[in-house]
Structure formats: structure tokens, C-alpha cells
Amino acid sequence: MLKILPLTRCWIPNRNSSWQILATGLILLIMKMQLEIRSRPGRSCIKKLIPCTTEPCMIPFLCIQTTRLIHCIASVFTYLGPGKGNYTPLQNATNGKVFGWVQPDVNNNKLGDYAPVILLISPKKQQLITIGGEYVLNPKTRLRAEVAMSNYDINLFSGRDKGNDKAFAAKMQFIKDDTKVNLFKRPLLMQTKLGYEFVQQRFRPVERLRNIEFLRDWSLPYDAGIADEHIITGAVKLADSSGNFFQYDVTNYKRSDHYNGLRQVLNSYNNFNSWKLTTQISYTNINYSLQNGSFFRPLVDLKKELTSIRNMQISFKYNSEHNKLRNKAADTLTAFSYAFNVWEVYLKSNPAKANRWGISYFTRNDLLPVSSKLVQADRSDNYNFFTDLLKNEKHQFKLNVTYRRLHVFNTAISRQKADKSLLGRAEYYINELKGFVIGNVLYELGSGQEQKREFTFLEVPAGQGEYTWIDYNNNGIPELNEFEIAIFQDQKKYIRVFTPSNQYVKANYVQFNYSISLNPKAIISPSATGIKKILARSSTSSALQINKKDISTGKFQFNPFTNKLVDTTLITLTSFLSNTLFFNRSNIKWGFDITHSQNNSKSLLSYGFESRRLRNLSGKVRWNINRNFVTTVGYRQIKNVLNTTGPKFDNRNYLVLQNIIEPSVSYVHKTNFRAGLTYAYGQKRNTIDSMEKATNHVLTADVRYNILSSSTLNARLSLNQITYKGYTGSANTTVGYILLDGLLPGKNYLWNVEYTKRLGGNIEISIQYEGRKPGSTKDHTYRESVYPCYFLTGQTVLIRQTRTV
Helix, strand, coil % (nearest 5) of the chain? Predict the structure, then answer.
């Protein structure tokens, strides 16, 4: 007998690692070993299962010890649902999940939701053949038939139970159209339909056979098992020449698991005195082995176009569902019983006009089962207003606002809580004064539930990721606080994947965006002098994006500019602000620009809050000495802040101030050669904790050579001289990585060579070689890329091969 002892804690690495593949093979090994034990009793026996004991496990193994060997199996944990496992995820900084054993209660009921098991998916085979046809008896009468056979083998590796792989399905339908009848002295056209459908229990279609709500239409649970199905249908439709019609359908649905349902549906459409009435009434009787009941679903829609009042539209609508399922033994309603009623009215302006508006109101009440009755649990009132003002091409405005209020009448049965919700969206576009002002504004707000998020770093081929792993504590375990945004191409080996959790908080959100450009040249005469001439050479652009969610305190959030980044009520905050002033932007002789930008972000993660702030103030002066020489002088002032609140993550906090001055000179020869030389002097210092500081001198030379019109050669060489001041070992920290830009104190060399050639008209080949020498080490990266280019459709497909030496 195999006895599995619980693991106290165990670490599961990245899902793309080879451990999960190894687990499948080792599980098969254990299964084979168990068969050997049964076939040769006494010769080998399993003594014990050795749980992992490290905190957390370096190698996630479950070990089974026999009298002769010790077999180890990778522990892959699978979510089974609440109360179905003995393990639960633990908060930990490890990259991946750490699971802890949960002791069952006194009745031996499981209290966890994970187990060290893996679902083995067998190879399958599925085949389907169908034969269908239609026979026209006369121009108005036809007969359709279709027969299908499926062959579904659930395990190609097994030779057992192959006789039940095949199954059949059939469908026949008789249709008779346009039979002329007279009813109440009115000439009508009648259509009749008869049909029968049979589906065998083991029949497996390639695609969905039924509509998405088929089971709900017949009051069956979504996980209803498969069974033999018999469906008999009949329908009669009467219609006149004006489009009015009346249709009656009846359907009988039988299953081999003793389910029997009869559904009757009435559909009609009538147009009288410009009032359009659409109705659909469905009533279903249900009889099951342990329960019976009924399902009543009426829908009534009455609308009219008010031609005397500017073609406005008015509508009244009612729809409802009453699903009563009774337990035959107890004569009470089951938990799947429910009912709701929805009443709606709306008034709209003429939808054909450019300027239009509308207002609507609807209310819904929900009823839930209590003993043998359906009792009202709650009711909601919903108000909506919208308007589109699009007639003026220079000023356009859109607005849509919805307010919802939920009233709870019975807290004992209602799954809801009394609440108020508001959703709104406003858009404004302007293009005024011959293009002097061009911009748009978006404002949106709402409320809802926000999930806490977890994230894991997954390893990908070098150059295709965004993050790099630096083992700061030298324990060989990737931990969440050891991943940084990679600077160099060969370090980009990880991507960050967010996964939702089962924890929610009530949240309000607000979004505000604007983008505005001012171009005085559009309204100033070219012959202007003085201050007008200076303004004509200037232009500005400004953009702002704010997306904020905060914990709901019972009030709506209207102001996107409230709450600072350190406010604990914030859940997520993403903001970007950019302002740029251009002067002589199109002048070929000289010009300058000044830009101020700021990025803020804050996220609620499973281990706490993470806040980032990046402010950048930069200026650049350009001077073309002549046709061949161009000089620029740039200056940047950067403030970089990271703040985390979770345990084990405070080592990542920093506030770095950076100043950089960067003059450069370039030589251009015609259109096929360009060479440049740039010098940059920068200072970085961390203004919190240990006050680390770095000074960097960078000299960069780059060359670009165009060979005819099909090939390009680019080369760059940089020398970085870095002076670093900090405590011993501080260079191997998050702050050190930021201050040193991924390099080392002392001399650092970086070089890059890229050759690009276009073959024919649609294929581009790129060969790149990158290298760097930080301190006494050398890293080389060689990449080949092939770009099939499709210029007509604007699509580019990239096939990249990367090799790191």
C-alpha cells in the first residue's frame, strides 16, 4: 500500500520549467512501479514517502522509498476547489507559489484547495462524418434530412473498451411554405414545420451542437451529464402582406436519464396605427426523476415613432423569467429556482439626426426560493441618459451616464448588498481657428469589484523578455524582489505575467485624458514681425492620462486629481503628463525644445503596494553649422522613485536624482554616410537609506553607412567610466543596478554592429552583433532576424533567432 505523507511546504518553480514535464514522466514511473508491486508481491514494497523539508524546497520533489530504490517525483500542485485539497498558497517572495499543509478538522474534512496531483491528458482521436440532403416535393414543400456518425477514442494508448467509441445522430425536418388560408376574412400565408432529432449519448460533435443557453432553456444545470436525446418539434406560422405574423411552436425534449420537457412558444408581431408590438411568450413543463416544475418567460415590447414630435421614439418593454423547480419528496422549491421581472421605458430623439439624445429607466426585482414560495429579495432602479452632439465638425461632444441603486428587502436570502453605482463617459473634440487649437478630452468614471493580483516571472529566450534576474542573496532561488527591468538585450530573459486572485475589494475608478496642441503659425501671417514672429515660430503640445482606482468608502469618485501617491486608499494609479515647447521646429538652421514629463503608477499586489514615480525635465538645442555638420547640446534632470510596502521588499526602495549633460557633433555626407561623436556627463545619487552615488563619463562614437538603397551598416562604440560610492556590496543591489545602469564601477566598453539588407521587395534580413565588457567580464550577443514585410497591409512578421556567447 502506498502511503503519501504531507509536505510541510514546497516551492513550485516557473510553469515553463522542465519540472512539470518531468512530473508527468515520473508519475508514469510510479504507476508502473505500483503495477510491478502488485504483480510481484514480496519482492518490492514501498516503505515511505519522504516529504521535502527545506524552507522552501530547492528542488520540489516527493520521494518514495522502496526496499531497493528511492524514486522521486516532482510535486506539481493543482487547484481542486475549496475544501477539496490539503494545501493552500502561502505569502512568500519566491518566484512561483509556495504551498503549506492545512490540517483537516476534527471530522477529517479537508480545509485546503490545492493538492500535489497532476491531470494526465491522454492522446485522443476524434472523427466525424455527416451525410445530408434535401428533397423538394413541390415548389412549396421540402424534406430535409441529415445523419452523422462520430468516432471518439479517449485514449489511443489503451486497447480497452473500443466498442463504444462510435455513436450516431440524425435530424429530419418537413417544411411547407406559403399555404394560402383565410382567417376572419383576411388572406394569410401559412408555414408549417415538423421535425425530429435524435442524438446518441456517446456522440461527439466537432463544434457546439446546441445554442449557448440550451440547458438553461430547459432548466437543466450547466454540468448536466450526457444522455440519449429525442427532440420532436412542430410549428405553425401565419403572416399577412404587411409583415404582421403569429407563430406557435411546440417542442418535446426527452433524455435517457428520465428527463421530460414540453415547451410551448408564442411569437407575434403587429403594427397598428404606427404602434409596433412584439411579443414572445414561452412556457415549459419539466418532469425529472427527483423534481418537476415549470419555466415561464414572457417578453413584450411596444414602441412608436412620434412623427408629429420631430420623429421621436418611445418604447415600453417587459420581460420576465419564473423558474420553479419542486422537489418531489419534500414538496419544496429547489435552490435552482428563481424569478425576476424587468420593466423598461425609454424616450429617444430621431436617430437619423447628427444631434441626438435619449433617456431611459428600467427596474428589476429578483425573487429567490424560501420553502415552497418565491420571495422578493431585492430590486434595482436604473437610470440612463445619453447625447451625441456631432453636427458641428469643429466641436463634437458625446455623453453617456447610468445610475443604479440596489434595494435589498430580504438580507437572509439575497446574495447582494444595498449599493449605489454610477457609470459615466464624456468625450469632447475640438479643431478651431484653422488648426490653431487641436485636441480631445475624455472623462470616465464608474464603480465595481477589483481583484488583487499576483505575478510571476517566466523565462523566455534571451532578447524576447523585459526583465532580468539578479541573485542578490546568492541562494540560487529566483525571488520576486530580485527581478529588474533589463537594460541590455542579452539580459532580457523574463516576462512578468499577472494572475488574478480570489480576493476582491469594492472600488471606484476614474479616468481622465486630454491631448492639446497649439500652433500659432496657423493664425499668424508669414510677414509678421516682432513678438508675432516669435510666436509663429513656436508651438506646444500637452498630454495627460490618468487612470485611478481606489477603495470605495460609500461615495463616488469624481475628481481624478485627488489623493497622493502614498494614499493607502489607492488600489491602482497610472498617470502620465507631458508638456513640450518647440521653437524653430521646422527651421533647418537651428532650434530648441523643452519637455517636462512625469509618470506615476501604483498597484495593489498580493504582498502589498508598489508605487513608482519618474519625472523627466529635458532640453535640447540644435545647430546646423553647415550642410555637413550638426551639433546638439542636451540636458536632462531625472527623479526616479520606487516604494514598496510588503515584507522582504523594502530592500528595493530608492529615490534617485540624476543630472546629465550631453553635447554631440555629427558629420553627414549626402544621404549614404553619417558619423557622430557624443560625450555625456551624468551624476546619480540615492537620497534615502545609504546615500549611494555614481558619476558617469560616457564617450560614444557611431557610424551609419547606406550601401545603395538596399543595405545599411550601423556601428557604435561606447566607453563608460563610472565612479561609484557606497557601502561594500551595495553595487549588487536594486539601487546599485539603477545607479550603474547594469554595468560595474570602472571602465566599461559597449559595442554594437548591425547589418541590414533588403532582398527583393518584401524580405529584409538583419544581422546584429552586440558586446560589452563591464569590468573584467565580457558578454557577446549575436542575432539574426528575417523580416517578411507587407507594405500594402501594414503588417510585419518577425522570425528571430538569438544566440548568446
Answer: 5, 60, 30
Assign 228 a pLDDT band (cuts: 50, 70, 90).
very high
Distance CA(755)–CA(233), nearest Å, equals 70
Is pLDDT above 70 for 770? yes
CA atoms within 13 A on the CB side of 154: 10
Return the amino acid letter for 10: C
Q: Which residues contact 391 (CB under 8 A, 6 or more apart)?
A: 354, 355
Q: For residue 794, is it left (φ>0), alpha (ψ between -120 and 50) or beta?
A: left
Question: Under a CB-based contact definition with an 8 Å cutoff, are residues 730 and 761 in contact?
Answer: no
**Could you read off the pLDDT of 47-102 as tens digits, one per residue?**
333 343 333 333 344 444 444 443 334 456 788 888 888 888 876 667 777 778 88
Sorted by sequence, the CB contacts under 8 Å of residue 532 that are 6+ apart come out as 524, 525
CA angle, 661 as apex, 658 and 664 as ends, to 5°? 145
Cis peptide before 520 (omega within 30 of 0): no
**Contact between 780 and 770 (Cβ < 8 Å):** yes
Q: State pLDDT tens for residues 336-353.
A: 999 999 999 999 999 889
Residues 6 or more apart whose CB falls under 8 angstroms from that of 106 comprise: none
> How distant, in Å, are the alpha carbons of 162, 245, 317, 362, 757 from that of 346?
60, 25, 9, 9, 63
CB atoms within 10 A of CB 574: 16
Q: Phi/psi at 25 (nearest 5 deg)? A: -65, -40
Segment 17-56, tens digit of pLDDT? 333 334 444 444 444 444 343 333 333 333 333 343 333 3
> CB neighbours of 320 closer than 8 A, spacing ≥ 6?
296, 297, 298, 299, 339, 340, 341, 342
Q: How far apart are CA 585 and CA 18, in angstroms?
A: 55
What number of CA atoms fall less than 13 Å from residue 263's CA on the CB side?
21
pLDDT at 190 over 80: yes
State the Cα torsion 408-409-411-414 to the nearest 10°. Answer: -70
Check if the beta carbon of residue 448 is closer than 8 Å to that of residue 507: yes
Can you tell me whether residue 6 is helix, strand or coil? coil
Alpha carbons 763 and 798: distance in angstroms, whole number: 10
665 CB-near residues (< 8 Å, 6+ apart): 629, 630, 631, 676, 677
Is residue 143's pLDDT more than 90?
A: yes
- Pick from 615, 612, 616, 602: nearest CA to 642: 612
In the chain, the percentage of residues whose pLDDT exceeds 70 is 83
Render pLDDT for 310-335 as a digit per residue (tens, 0 to 9): 899 999 999 999 999 999 988 899 99
Amino acid letter, residue 642: L
Our measurement of the distance from residue 421's CA atom to the centroid of its chain's CA atoms, rounded to an integer in Å, reads 24
How many whole angstroms separate alpha carbon 98 and alpha carbon 720? 42
DSSP type of residue 26: H
Average pLDDT over residues 773-799: 50
Query: How far is Cα 781 from Cα 797, in angstroms, rounded to an integer?
Result: 22
3-class SS of residue 236: strand
| Closest to 616 (Cα-Cα) out of 585, 663, 659 | 659
Q: β-strands 483-485, 467-469: how paired?
A: antiparallel
pTM for the complete prediction? 0.71
For 370, 408, 508, the CA distances from 418, given in Å and listed in that order, are 20, 6, 16
At residue 37, the pLDDT reads: 36
* CA 119 centroid distance within chain: 26
Provide the grid cell at 83: 475544501
* DSSP labels, 674-694: EEEEEEEEEEEEE-STT--EE
